[in-house]
Amino acid sequence: MGDSERPDTTMRFGVFEVDPRSGDLRRSGTRIRLQDQPFKVLIALLEHPGEVVTREELQVRIWPQESFGDFDHAVNVAVAKLRAALGDSAEVPRYVETLHRRGYRFIFPLAGTGGPNPGVATTQESIRSTIAPALNASAQPIPSKLRSWTRLSAVLVVGLLGAATFAFWTYRRLAQPTRMNSPEMEITKVTNKGNVDSVAISPDGRYLVYAFPDKERLGLWTREIGTQSEVQILRSEEPLVINGLTFSPDGTHVYFSRIVNESARHSHLYRLPVLGGTPQLLIKDVDSPVGFSPDGGRFVFVRKDLKRNAAEVRLANADGTGERLLTTVNEAGSVWSQSGGSWSPDGQTIAVSVAFWPGKPGSELATISVADGSVHALYTSQDTYEMGRPLWLPEGDALVVVLYDNKVGGRLWTISYPAGEAKPLTHDFENYDPLINMTRDGKTIAANASAMAFNIYVLQATDFSRAQQLTFGRHFVNSVTVGPDGRLLVHELLNPQGELWKMSADGSQRVLFSSLRNIGIFTIRCGTFVLFVAAPKGTQELIRVDADGLNPKTLTSGNIWSPSCSLDGRFVFYADLVIRPQRILRISIEGGDPVEIAKVSGDGMTGTMDVSPDGRFLAYPYHASQPDTFGLIVVPVEGGAPVKTFPIIDADCVRWSPDGTGIDLNLTRDGIENIFEQPLAGGELRQLTKFTSGRFSDDSWSPDGKQMYVAHGEMSRDVVLISNFR
User: What CATH code is assigned to 9-106?
Assistant: First the structure.
């Protein structure tokens, strides 16, 4: 049989092509050098995508004559070389996942066969020459006094993942996919930077604009998709936070909102030529990406109102003039940035994603009449703690949106219009960020896909510079608590059953802690008991169990936020953030009626709350609109005037030090997140942990104050293009 008659055996995933016959591995058409044994490992994994290939199977297939010691070294080296060729990471795998002491698994979806990917031409002049020469191509430095405030946008995972902390009330699982993406769908990885923040695709599908740090400075880049050439179009003197990108309908400008005030978290909207220049300030206080009308003359955006707990849907002309209120959505004034809205192809309807926060479960995809501002709930789900940016398909009969829950993460769905029927679009292992973009013809989606791994570490109070890792693998531990018996209680995000596990203090002997399901992230030690918030019947309940997980007792139900236990184990404090003004309540460990003890300071609580070891004070982050500030506050448990306030705008997860002399906070400084201690007496922050990369999702002191257990890990975010999905 001639070469032209042989069947195509090429395997494709993302930008990679693998030819088993020739032994070639190519990235975007360029051959990558890979030795024989790593290549054979790759073939073995590709032949069983999504399945575990054991080390024993690899030994029989590739190293049948090697002794155990020689094989163990050989396979480790081969996998390391394979990962290096793919640009992959063992800690946060995108392609090859390690299953400790078992083997390996290929986790990226394989694409259908087809023609080879185009070759790559790379010059910045190429991209400049293909866009209208009238654009100013000089990227000017922009002075900024803003510190990087990344903890707000990702309180547990960093992008992703942040909203998961404020999503503990999401309990039941979205319909689980039973298959991978169809062979026709193609998911192509475009960047390999690991820290892309936002992305937009031009209406014609030729260009991308995306944000990522350059030497710890967040900047914007324009990339020509066909040649992969790119040019930086915005550089900042200091890190800044981008809240969504959108191309203008004619493809000549990019609109973006960014946080610009060091003492508050408000975003302002700017317009910038796609090849750089001086950004033009259009509107202040814009908390979402913009969505353009079909004729390009107007756009829609969302402005949050923390004091009223409302989200205003507003319209403006393309140049920022003529701003007006279209409608207001109540119970949606989240401290998080909003996903924004999308204009229907006929120009009569705007779709807006609404995340109800706090207390009211779930999210809603609402449609709003442009003519009169009337609101209709197209799709509502109590299982979904966040809905991403909705995008209309060109026919106007459906929208594409990312739906999140804390059991399966972020997946792409279609919502039919006007029926409101939801169907999963993607079934792969990727977790997609909420702010997706789509070409004008509806054939290509640009999205950030994230992979993450958070494990448990222990640090000794006498030496915070050394962290001992206790768990390994692709976990996403988002809650760790030391129980009354010294064992660790662990909750994981993307846990289909919402279970709580326990393990020994060294990370071994993991077993199920309780038979209850749908447990949220709040788990605390309270004397000889363990308390957690769960929804076994669909409603939030504060449940007490014995140290062994038995004898559950519901103490109260309703809107329960951030429970904290007094040192003597007699009382539990928690917040109700739904009723305005927000309240702090106390309930006996034996149950009974909750008693309101204080109002939340300012306009509302913006993170978790903790009671001091002596039971006298409560500490929590807050927001106040008069004047407009964020900070950390310490108040007496019986209410009254604040004892201390600290101007720490990025405080969210709060924990008292064991001796009560300080408050521990997860903060990002100089681009790196660590745990700092704010002395109660005042003064400078004191850095405790010494991590050089990664993020925290939780921390817990041992009862004797000698060890700190932390959930720490990495998250990788890169741009992917999704096509052939409809």
Answer: 1.10.10.10
